[in-house]
Structures are given as C-alpha cells and as structure tokens.
Design goal:
By secondary structure, this protein is of the alpha/beta class. The protein folds into two domains: 29-129 and 194-385, no CATH class; 440-583, Transcription Regulator spoIIAA (2-Layer Sandwich), CATH 3.30.750. The chain contains 29 helices and seven strands. The chain has a five-stranded mixed β-sheet with strand order 3-4-5-6-7. Helix 4 (61-78) runs antiparallel to helix 17, helix 16 packs parallel to helix 18 and helix 24 (475-482) packs parallel to helix 25 (501-516). It is elongated.
Length: 593
C-alpha cells in the first residue's frame, strides 16, 4: 500500500518544523535590514563573551568563538524561537571546568555530544513543557550559586595572581586563591578595576550623557564590555604593559575555520560521563527555554519548546567535534537582538557570520587582549546573572521556599550543581506533596446539613472528602476505617478531584473492612477521573452498584431504607441513568493509574 507523500510531509512538519520556515513568510527587504543590523550588533556583543566563557571554563578562547559560530548558526536555523541567539553561556562555566579537570578535554567532547543526544530526545518525546515544572526556588538557588563560583574563579586573573592550576571545587579554589595573594599584581588589578568601572558606568547611563540625538539608541546597544575590551587592548599594546594576555597564555586565536576532530577516549570513562552529560542537558534545557520565554514576552510571540530542544541537541552534538563547548540560548544576546530590531532567525545567522568574519580577519589583534579585562567582563556577567534581590525578599516567603532556595544555593557553591538540583527537586517535591495532602480533608455531615440524618447517630456515619485522594492523603481513609459505625458509612466524593492507585487501594481496603464488619458502605458523587478509577480498580464491584448514588440526599434515602418514598420523576430518571453506568464491563482490579 503506497503512502501519500503529502501525508508524510505533514507528519514530519508536525514533528520537526524549524521556526525559520514560518518566520520567513512575508519576509521583505525592510525586515532583512533590521535583522542584519541586529545581527551585527549581537555579533559584537558576543565576541568578548564567547572568549571569556571559554577561558573561564579552562579552554582556549577559540573554543568559545567556534561555539558561537557553529552552534549559533544551527540554533538559529533549526530552533523553535524567532529571535533566540545560541552560544556559550556563563551557566556552563562551572560544569565545563569541572569536567575538564576531572575527565580531560577529550571526554568533554563526548559529554557534550551525549548531552546533545539527551536534549534531542527530550524534544522528540515532547518534554519541552516539563522544564517549566522546575520550581523557581531551585532555579534561583543554582543560578545565584553559579554566579558566585564564576566570580570566585575570576579572582585569579582579576588580581593578576600567579596560579598554575585553579581547582574546580569551592574549598580548593578558595584555599589556592588565599595562598596566592602575595603574588598580587597592581598593574593587572588597576586594569581590571578600570575595565569594570567603565562597563558599569556604560551600563548605567554614560551613553545618554554623550548623545541625546538619533544615534543615542544605537550607541546604547554597544555594550560596555566591547568598549572596555578595545580600550584595554590598545592600552596594553601601546604601553607594552607586563600583564597576562591571550597571546602570552594561549598564543592567540586561529584565523581559520575549525576542522573535524575525533578525540581519543575510553569507553570505560564514557560510562562515568552520564551524570555530567545529564547535568549539561538539563542546564541547557532550562537556560534555553527560560530565555525563549523571556523573548516571547518581548516580541509577543510563542516559541516551540520541543523544536528548540531538538535544535539545541543537534547543535551540542555537532559543535564539540569542531573544537566547541556546550551551547544554549543566551538571555543577554537574545535581548540585545530584540532591542536591535531582530525579528527572524536571520539575525542569529548574521550574528554567527559576523563572528566568523571577525575571527578570520582580526585574529592577530586578539593577542593583546588582557586577561584582567576578560575577568572584569565575567565579574559583571556574574553580577547580572544572579537574582540577588531574592535573598533580601526571602522573609516574604514561606519556610519551605526559603529552605529550598538557600539549600540549593549552598550546595551549588560548596558541593556540586548536580547534587544541588537533585536535593532541591526532592525538597520541592516533598514540600508540594505535604501542601497538597494538607489541602485534602474530610468533614462529617451533620443533621443541620441533612435533616434526614436526625436520629441516626451511631448507625449512619456520613462524611464528605475534599481535594485529591493520593498516596500522601490515604490516612484520611485509614482514619475512617479505624472508626466504622454500627450500620452504614456514607462517603460523599463529589469534591474529590483526583484519585491515584494508592488512593484506589485505600478505598478497596475500606470496602473490605466494611464487608468484614457488616457495615454498609454507600458512595455518592463519583465523577470524572475518580469515577473512571473506581470502575477500573474494582471498587465499584466491591461496593456494589446499588450502593453508589449521584448525590448525598439520594444516598441517605437509600441507606436508611426509604426507597419506597416518592421522588420527583426527574430525580428518579437521574438516579436510574447514574446507576446504569455501573453495570458496564469492569476491568480487572489493581489496574495502575
């Protein structure tokens, strides 16, 4: 049987459809001009950041450039956002540095490629929306922790300390820096302080003082980091200052395209890389999708999270084999793109091409870039990266939120990001389970609620359940089971919104306990998901369809043997239709939800 080609194309487009295909519909010369201008601006912004992130990660500066060029191009062409800019990010510095120190550069390539496979799989299995379920307290905690570690790792170059190898862990890093303080370099420190002062001043209003004319908006788009980098490089070259530069430490950057390199690695080591690769994948997914959500709010659009994850996966699988490092969506460059007028993935492609041209043409000029200025740039990035005001506002939140945020922050700084996120997620899950279980409750129905209960104390015990009947709330059913009445137990489940397999088991246990003690169990109000679970797990069969009613009034009437009383015809019809539901085929019990 032949398959319709148009049907196959439609199925493929629903599975893998880069946003560029939609963004280019109605594309014109005016939009192209805006994209080119925004792409050139973002390329200038990305140049110092790409090199700084690579150096801080323990790699050569060209690794950041290769990543910004290759991954930036792939993410723009294949991604699910119109304006997202991909490339190396500060959040990866701590993870990459630790992988390089522990496993070596060859295994960083493998770990990054493995993270790419995981990211692509997350997109294929439509897990893009699940990233949004990570609590904000966990995200803020590890983001602030990473910012602290980035700043600490830059103290060496910021002060010009003589450190041969800086450990990746917090205590080793702090101890090494303290012992190296006597090698403090006043020239490097003055250069880094001057660079940082210029970046901060430019960020907070210097362009407005310089110009209020039509060029003011464009001038403000030029980041202070670029200006500081250029001026510091000129100062070092003209006065021949004795400070560490890219040329003195790395020999400069290549002025040619990277070639495919297949690293030598051991399969015995690869199995230990699953946790680092998973960390890279999760961090990349969180960063890119959070960035895409920020961009959506700025351009009034909605990205495709699963397509974005697949694009990130492809980029992270390909880039490391060409000398790159992990990549993700970057907020600073994406915001610059939007403010610069970028309106399609063409801007991201222009950004990548801009970096390529700069690398091919101006590579020799990079030899005089001082590492002290690169450290100042990363210090400023770390400050902007952290949500420091959240620490000030912690008293406004409940204790579980505060404890989770502080625990993740502390564990990220002192131990490891993977441990911090795992502990944070477990703490957030436990807190959520506790909060939801506390919202689930039972209340006794009194004579004031239903006069038909008058005189039935001790014989009929009526209760109404609220919330979700899940594994964290089964004690509600166990308490009822421990205090059975003499004759009839009536449960109103109208306000139960969800029942899981543990809740279904507890209901079946209650039905068996009632049968053993010759107590009639009457159920009313089962609707939607609880009704479906009750039928599938065998609870309806254990209770009996004649003991299940649509509402409390009908249930009380039946439980005290007053079925002979006349009821309105409409009510009789409702009860009849409701009971017919329970004579359908019932699946075998113990079916899991």
């Amino acid at each position: 049987m032949a398959t319709d080609p148009s049907s196959l194309k439609a199925r493929f487009n629903s599975f893998f459809r880069p946003r560029i295909l939609d963004a280019l519909q109605g594309y014109n010369q005016q939009r192209f001009a805006k994209d080119v201008g925004a792409g050139l601006t973002v390329g200038v912004v990305a140049l110092p950041l790409a090199m700084a992130f690579a150096i801080a990660s323990g790699l050569k500066p060209e690794a950041g450039l290769f990543t910004a060029i290759i991954a930036g191009m792939l993410i723009s062409v294949l991604g699910g956002s119109r304006v997202q800019i991909g490339g190396p990010a500060g959040a990866f510095i701590v993870i990459v540095y630790g992988i390089v120190e522990r496993y070596g550069l060859a295994n960083l390539v493998i770990a990054t490629a493995m993270s790419g496979v995981l990211l692509f799989a997350m997109g294929v299995f439509k897990m893009g929306t699940l990233v949004r379920f990570i609590p904000i307290s966990v995200i803020i905690g590890f983001t602030n922790g990473i910012a602290v570690l980035i700043a600490l790792s830059q103290v060496k170059d910021f002060l010009g300390l003589q450190v041969a190898n800086l450990p990746a862990n917090f205590f080793g890093m702090a101890s090494t820096l303290v012992h190296a303080l006597p090698s403090f370099d006043s020239i490097a420190t003055a250069l880094s302080l001057g660079s940082l002062a210029l970046i901060v001043a430019w960020q907070f209003g210097v362009p407005r003082l310089i110009s209020n004319g039509p060029w003011a908006a464009r001038l403000r788009l030029v980041p202070g980091s670029v200006l500081a980098l250029v001026l510091a490089t000129v100062v070092v070259a003209v006065w021949d200052l004795p400070v560490a530069t890219i040329g003195s430490k790395f020999g400069g950057i290549p002025s040619s395209l990277p070639s495919l390199v297949w690293p030598a690695f051991s399969w015995e080591t690869v199995r230990f890389l699953f946790i680092p690769a998973t960390t890279l994948a999760m961090l990349g997914a969180i960063e890119s999708l959070l960035c895409a959500r920020v961009a959506d709010g700025m351009i009034d659009d909605r990205h495709d999270p699963n397509q974005e994850l697949m694009a990130q996966g492809i980029a992270n699988f390909i880039t490391p084999f060409f000398g790159g490092m992990p990549a993700t969506g970057t907020i600073a460059r994406t915001v610059t793109n939007v403010k610069g007028g970028g309106n399609s993935p063409i801007a991201g492609m222009v950004h990548a091409l801009t970096l390529l041209v700069v690398m091919l043409v101006a590579a020799p000029l990079a030899r005089n870039i001082p590492l002290a200025t690169m450290a100042a740039i990363l210090m400023f990035v770390a400050w902007n990266m952290g949500e420091w005001s959240e620490f000030v506002h912690l008293r406004q939140y409940r204790m579980p939120y505060r404890a989770t945020l502080l625990a993740v922050f502390f564990l990220t700084v002192v131990f490891d990001l993977t441990v911090a996120v795992e502990v944070g997620l477990v703490a957030a899950c436990i807190t959520f389970i506790y909060r939801i279980s506390s919202l689930s409750r039972t209340e006794a129905l009194t004579e004031a609620d239903y006069p038909a209960l008058v005189g039935l104390q001790g014989q009929v015990s009526a209760h109404r359940l609220y919330g979700a009947l899940f594994f964290g709330a089964v004690k509600l059913i166990e308490d009822l089971q421990d205090h059975l009445p003499e004759r009839t137990l009536l449960l109103d489940l109208k306000n139960v919104i969800y029942v899981d397999s543990s809740g279904a088991d507890s209901l079946n246990d209650l039905a068996r306990a009632c049968d053993k003690n010759r107590v009639r169990l009457v159920i009313c109000g089962l609707m939607h998901q609880p009704l479906d679970i009750a039928k599938r797990c065998g609870f309806v069969g254990n209770v009996g369809a004649n003991n299940i009613h649509p509402d409390v009034a009908t249930a009380i009437q039946a439980s005290v043997g007053l079925d002979h009383l006349d009821a309105p015809p409409a009510a009789q019809h409702t009860v009849k239709c409701y009971k017919e539901v329970f004579h359908e085929h019932i699946s075998p019990p113990r079916l899991q939800v």
